[in-house]
Amino acid sequence: MKAVESMFPKARIPYGTWGSSYFPAWQTSALSEVNIGQFAGEAMASILGKRKVPSRQLEYLIIGSTIPYHWKFWNAPMIASCLGHRIPGYHMEQACATGLSSVVIAGSEVNAGSYDTVGVLTFDRTSDSPVGVFPERRSYRRTEALVDVWDNFGFDPSTGGGMIATAGIAARKYKIDRAEVDELTYLRYKQYFEAKHSGFLNRVLLPFEILNVQGRLSGKIDDDFGVRQITLQALKDMRELDTCVTAGGQTHAADGMATILVSSPEKAKELSPRPEIDIQFIGKVDIRTLPGLMPEAPGIAVKKLLDRTGLTMDDMAVVKNHNPFAVNDAIFAKTMNYDWRKMNKTGCSLVWGHPQAPTLTRTLIESLEEAVDLGGGYVLIFGCAAGDVGTAGIFKVS
Amino acid sequence: MIHQMRQSTLQTLGLGSVLEIFQHGRLPVSADELVDRVFGKAGERGALVISGANGIVGAGKAMQLGSRLEPFGVPVIALDFPGVPDGMAKQYPGLVAAFGRGNANKIMGNIIRYSYDGKDLPEALSAHNPRFLLEAIPEILEVKKEHYKLFRSKFPDIDIWSVTSGFPSSALGVGIAHPAFPHEINKIWEIVEPVPSASSQLLWALGLIPMPVGDNWSFVLDVLFCGLTNAGTRFSEATNMPFWKADKYIRKYMGPNPFRAHDAIGAAGANFLSWSCLHHLSQHYGELFTPSSTFDEKKESGSNWYPPDHFRPVVDWSMNSEEYAEFNTWILGALFQMTSLMVHENRSHLAQMNLIGELCAQFSRGILAVIRSYGAEDARKLVEDYHKLDPAAAKKAWYPEVFDRIDTPEWQQLYVNVEHDGKVGVISINRESYNGDVNDELNRAIDWLKAAGIDHVIVSGDFHLSTQMTGADTTDFFPAVEDVQKGIDLSYSWSTTARRLNNEFKTSVGIINGKRCLGGYLELMMHCHYLVADENASLGMPEVTLPVIPGMEGCHWPFRKASPDQYPKLLRLLLTGKSMKAKDSVGWLTDFAGPLEATIQTAWKLASGGDHGLKRREVVQGNLPNVTKEIPKLEDTDDPSLQEARKAIIDCIESSCNAPLPEAISIQATLSGNFMTTSLFKKGVIGSAYMKTWKV
Hints:
The structure holds 2 protein chains of 2 kinds.
Chain A: E1 19-21, H1 36-50, E2 60-64, H2 75-83, E3 89-92, H3 98-111, E4 117-125, E5 131-135, E6 143-147, H4 150-154, H5 163-173, H6 178-198, E7 205-206, E8 208-211, E9 217-221, H7 232-237, E10 255-263, H8 265-271, E11 279-288, H9 297-309, E12 316-322, H10 326-336, H11 349-352, H12 359-373, E13 377-385, E14 389-397
Parallel strand pairs in A: 1-7, 2-3, 2-4, 12-13
Antiparallel strand pairs in A: 1-10, 4-10, 5-6, 8-9, 11-14, 13-14
Chain B: E1 3-4, H1 18-24, H2 31-39, E2 47-51, H3 56-69, E3 76-80, H4 92-99, H5 101-109, E4 111-115, E5 130-135, H6 141-154, E6 159-162, H7 169-172, E7 175-179, E8 188-192, H8 198-205, E9 209-212, H9 220-239, H10 243-253, H11 258-265, H12 267-285, H13 293-301, H14 321-344, H15 350-361, H16 367-374, H17 376-389, H18 409-412, E10 416-420, E11 424-429, E12 433-434, H19 436-451, E13 456-461, E14 471-472, H20 478-482, H21 484-503, E15 507-512, E16 516-518, H22 519-526, E17 530-534, E18 538-540, H23 557-561, H24 567-576, E19 580-581, E20 592-594, H25 596-608, H26 640-657, H27 661-675, H28 679-683, H29 685-693
Parallel strand pairs in B: 2-3, 2-5, 3-4, 5-6, 6-7, 8-9, 11-13, 12-14, 13-15, 15-17, 16-18, 17-20
Antiparallel strand pairs in B: 1-10, 7-8, 10-11, 18-19
C-alpha cells in the first residue's frame, strides 16, 4: 500500500463499532410514522450496545440530517438524550454529502484534541416530510408552502431545474448510451443481492422493532423494503424519464439512520472488537460543478482528491459511491477511465435508496467492512449532492 | 421436647414456637397485656408520640398504629413543626375506605396534634404521659440525637424508636423500627434491639409483622431494593439498554420494577433516598454499593427514570441468550453478593431476610430462594462472573463461604417449617401464596416428619410472617401459557403433594388461622383429614373469576367428602368465586369453625388424639356421577366470559368426579393445564398479567 499522509493523524475510526438501520423505501414501514431523530438516538444506543460500546464513552455527538423533524430546534443535545447520554453536540447538513462531512468533522474534532470519542449519527425520514410555510414578500403569493423533500427535488433555486434534469443533461453531455446504463443498473442490483445473500449486509445493518405510543409493536425494520430483484429486460423495457434515466436507473426516497464513531488511536483500540485494525482518514474534498451537471461532480471531486493525495484509482481497494442515478456511474467510469464493474461490489444507494443524510454513512460503513474482508487498503467513497456538488473521501484500512 | 427442622421465626421475637401455640392452646401473648406493659394499665395509660408526623412515614404510621391502638385507649400525639404541609389529613380518605367513616372519625379523634419549634417540647405534652416515641424526622444524625436528648430530659423513661433511619442503632443510641412502604398498609417492620422487647411483641399482637434484624448499616429491604436499582443502572450503563426496558426485564425475571417505583414515589425524593442509602453502604462495604454515575446524576437532577410521555420509546429492545446471561450476571450477581454480606453479618433469620424482598420490594421469589435454586457452586460462579464485569465490586463485601450452608434446613426451608414433639407434627407455612418453592419445601417437611415416624400432623400458617393464605402464586402459571405440559405437570405435582397430607398420615389437620384461605391453599388444606378454621376467616375459590380451572383437585376432592345434599353449596363456591365466612362452611367444607383459640385447641385435640367429638368425613374412592345434576341459581350470568369459565369448571367437575380417585388427579391436572393455553385464560386476569409482565 502506497504511503501517504493522513489528514487527521490523531483520529481513527474504531472498527466494528458502527451500524446502520435498513433503509425502507418511503412510506413502506413503521419508520414513516416516527420522530426520526428520536428513532435515530434510540437506535444508536442499541447499535452501540450490540457493539459492546457503552454510550457513556461518547463525549460529543455530531448529528447529520437534512429533513426537519419534530423538535429539531433542540438538535444534537436532544438526540443525545434519546441515546441515553446527555452530551453536547453539533448539527451538520449538506444534502447527500452530509454523511461523509459529518464523519470528517468528527475526525477534525478528535484530531484537534477536543474529544477522545465522538459519535456520528446521521438520519432522515423522507416519508411524510414536513411542509414549511414561509412568509415571502417578494413572491406574488406572499406566502410559500414548501414540501421539504419533493419540492426541493423538483426545483434547484440556483438553476431553476430539478434533480432528474441534471441526470439527463449530464448524460447528453457525455453521450452516455442507454444500453450501458441498463447493464450497469442490472449489475448494481446483482451486486446488492449477492452481498445480501452472502450475509455481508447482516454485519452492518441491524434490525429494529418499532413501538407505537401504546408500547406495542408497530412494525419491524428488518429489510430494505421496496428493493426487489429486477431483470435486464425489465430495465430495458422501462420508459425513459429523461435521457438515460428510467425508474430503474434512479434511486428512491427512503427512511433510515446510520452511525459510526471517531476516536483517538488509543481509544479506537479500546472500543473496537478488533483493535489490530487501524482505520485512518486520508483526505476529503468537495467541489461544485457547472449548473445542472450534478452527475459529473463526483468524478471531478475524486480527481481533485487523487491529485492532492498522490494516489490513483489503482491504489483503491474499495470504490463505492452514492449514485442516485445510474448515469452517475457511467459518467464517472468514462471520465476517470475506470471500469464501473469494479465499483459498488456490496451494493449502493442506487439500489437500496436515498434517505439523504445517512446515505454516505452507510456507504462508508459498507466500504470499510469490505476493505477489512479484503485485508485492508485504501477506500474511496464519493457521491453527488444537491447544488451540483461532488464530494469524495479516502480512508486507509490496515 | 420439641424437635424443629429449623428455628421458628416467632422465636426471634421471644414468642416461642408454633408447636407451642398448639400445645398451650392459645397465642403466646395478648395485645391487652402488652399494651399494659408498654403504655401502662388502664387509668394511667400513656401516649404514643410520633414526631415528624406530617411526613410520609410519620403520617402513615400514625394511621397504622392509631387504628390499632385506639380500641385500647392509647392516644397518638402527632408532633411536627408549625407550617409544614398537613400529611395527616391526606390519610383520612384511606381510613374511611378501610374502616368506614364512623371508625375513621374515631381513629382521627384519638390523634392529638401539637406543633413545636424543634427546641422545646409543648408544655401540654406532659399531660398525655408519653411512654413511647416514634421518631420520623429527617435523616441527619446530630438533629436526631438532639431530638432524643430533648425527650429524655423531659421524659426520662420514654422508650424511643427511630423509624426513618439508615444509621445503626449504635450510632443513634435508640432502637430502630424500619417500616416498609407504603407505610399505611405495609405490616413489615425491621426491628433493631438487643433482645425482643414488649414493644416489638405488641406490634405482633396488633397484627403487624415485626422482624428482628442486626444492627448494621441500612436494612435488608434497603440493601435489596437500592442495591437492585443500582445494579440495574450499572447494567444499563454497560449495555445502553434504556431504564424503561431494563425495568421491564427486572420485573419479568425478579419481580420489582425499581425504576418505575422511583418515579411513582416521586423521583426527586426517592432518587436522593436511594442514593443516600447506597452512598452510606459504599462507605462501609465498598464498591459493590457505590452509586453509579447515573445515580449521581439522578440524585442531583431528581429527574424521572422513564422517558416523558412525549418521548415514549420508539425502538424496542430484546435480549438474545448471551445478552440475557449478561443481564442476569449484572443483576443477580450483584444481588447474590449483597445477600452473602447480609447472611455473613447474620442480619436476620433467613426466612425473614428472604421474605422481606417479597413482601416489601415485590420480588417474585425471595433472593435466598433464588440463590438456593442455583446451588452454591453456580451462585458463586455467577458472582465471580459479575466481578469480571465489575471488578471493583470484588474487593469487599463478598463472602462466598456462606453459600456452603445452602443445603441446611435454614436455607432449604425458607417458607415451610416443621416441628414435632415425638407424636404430633406441625407444619407451618409463611408464604401467603403457594408456589413451586412452597411445594418443594412442603414435601421436604413431610419427608422429615415421616423419617421421624410422626403420623399426626397439623398444617397451619406460621402465626407471624403470613397473615393469610391467598391461593396459588399465579406467576408460576406463566410458563404454562406457552407450554401446555408445564401447566399439566404443575397441577399434577402440586396435587400429588396435597394428597400426601391425606395418604401419608393417620391424622392430618388443616387449620386456617389467618384472615382468609383461598384457591390453591384451600384446595391444599381440604386434603387434610380435618379442616378447622377461625370462624371469621374468609374461604373461597375465586378461580372462576380469573379465570382458571382449579389445579389442586378442587373440582372433585371436596365433593368426595361432602354428602350429595351439600353439592349445591360446593358448586356455588366454585362457580361464583365468592368467599364466605368459615362459620358458614362447617359440615361440607370445614369440620369446625370457632374463635381462634378454640380452633387452635380443636386442631390440637384432633392431632393429638384428644376428645374432639368430630367425625372424619371420608373421601369417596369411586366414581361420583351426577354431581352437577342440580346447579344452583347463579348471579351475573350475562357475562359471556364468566359463563364460559363456569362451563369449563363444570366440565372439569363432571369429568374428575365421574372417575375413580386414582384417575381423577390426572383428569383435573390435564383440564387445568389445557385451560391455561386458551384464549379465555389469556384474556383474563392472569393472562393479562402474563402479557404485561412476561411479554416484554
